[in-house]
Write a structure and sequence with these properties.
Spore Coat Polysaccharide Biosynthesis Protein SpsA, Chain A, 6-stranded mixed β-sheet, 340 residues, alpha/beta
Length: 340
């Protein structure tokens, strides 16, 4: 082992006293040992810091930092400044990494010099009946393994589980750390890096047991609300459209309902022009909504003279639309993009 470890495992924690020991031990027991664990306690008012202190005394690879409670982004960026490794692996205080996670991710990044970030599949650990929607989300992200799949699906939802990723630390100096604002900090970072052309991939194996609980930030904090997701997606989708839509700024929106129109309105704030709507409901065909005509789905605009943004939230319907567009000669990423 050299002066600096190969991997820095970044673990920000807040009031995780009941679970953090298992999380840390899953890292200490990794098959790959050339790492440091940067544990940042974000002003916990439970036993988190004392648990971490005991663990740090037993293993010199743990570097423990206690800070006033300033929130996750502040803790993440403070931790990044302490990381000495070539690669940064994220970890949360209520999750458990599989024993060979670090080894597999380091090998992948070493074998794929053109890839900036590698994730892996996750195992959902929560109430699968009560939180069936979250289970479907985990199933969806696990299905996206290649850079092509991750890139094309980025405007639906976040395609990566934050505590499952490992990335090159050089990306931080190139494109900046986590941003603070009214949006999910991890999703914004993925969108920003993808916009900059950074390749991402996912090992088609489970690397993490992802625990779901009622106190998770994504359930309770306004920065993780649906509206926050729509706004940050629209920002980066507009940038993507400017580069990839040959008919920019004009777009057709698949979805004439109130929700789809509301989501599309954020695109208009970024200088996109909505030419019209497409819908499957025959009662809407020919209607004029906001001075734009609604076309029925079998009356698609010419693919060589239009670009479609699909704003449909239901997964099963979304896949039907994808199949229909593909059957009619539309190419995803060339003639249309899905952005639920």
């Amino acid at each position: 082992m050299g002066d600096n470890p190969t991997v820095s495992v970044l673990l920000p924690v807040y009031n995780a006293g009941q679970t953090v020991s298992a999380a840390v031990r899953s890292i200490l027991q990794q098959s790959y040992s050339d790492f440091e664990l940067i544990a940042v306690d974000d002003g916990s008012n439970d036993e988190t810091f004392s648990v971490l202190t005991r663990l740090a005394r037993s293993d010199s690879r743990i570097k423990l930092f206690g800070r006033p409670h300033e929130g996750l982004v502040s803790a993440l960026n403070f931790g990044l400044r302490q990381c000495r490794g070539q690669f940064v692996a994220r970890m949360d205080g209520d999750d458990v990494s599989r024993y060979n996670r670090l080894e597999k991710q380091v090998c992948f990044l070493r074998d794929h010099a053109d890839t900036g970030l590698v994730s892996g599949q996750v195992s959902y650990q929560g109430d699968k009946q009560k939180n069936f929607g979250y289970c479907l989300y985990v199933e969806w992200i696990n299905s996206l393994t290649s850079h092509h799949e991750i890139s094309l699906n980025r405007f639906i939802e976040s395609p990566l589980a934050h505590p499952s990723v490992m990335f090159r630390k050089s990306l931080i100096s190139m494109f900046g750390p986590y941003a603070s604002g009214p949006f999910p900090e991890d999703y914004e970072l993925w969108l920003r890096w993808l916009e900059q052309g950074i390749k991402m991939a996912k090992i088609p194996e489970t690397v993490l047991d992802w625990h779901d609980n009622e106190n998770r930030l994504s359930r309770n904090h306004p920065d993780y609300s649906l509206d926050a997701f729509f706004k940050i997606k629209a920002n980066y989708l507009a940038l993507w459209l400017k580069k990839n839509n040959p008919h920019y700024p004009e777009v057709w929106i698949w979805g004439a309902g109130r929700k789809a129109r509301h989501r599309a309105e954020y695109l208009e704030m970024h200088q996109c022009l909505i030419k019209g709507y497409i819908d499957v409901r025959s009662n809407l065909a020919g209607n004029i909504i906001q001075d734009r005509k609604v076309r029925l789905y079998h009356d698609l605009p010419d693919k060589d003279d239009s670009f479609i943004v699909v704003y449909v939230g239901k997964r099963s319907v979304r896949e039907e639309i994808r199949a229909y567009l593909n059957e009619n000669g539309f190419v995803e990423g060339v003639n249309y993009i899905v952005a639920a």
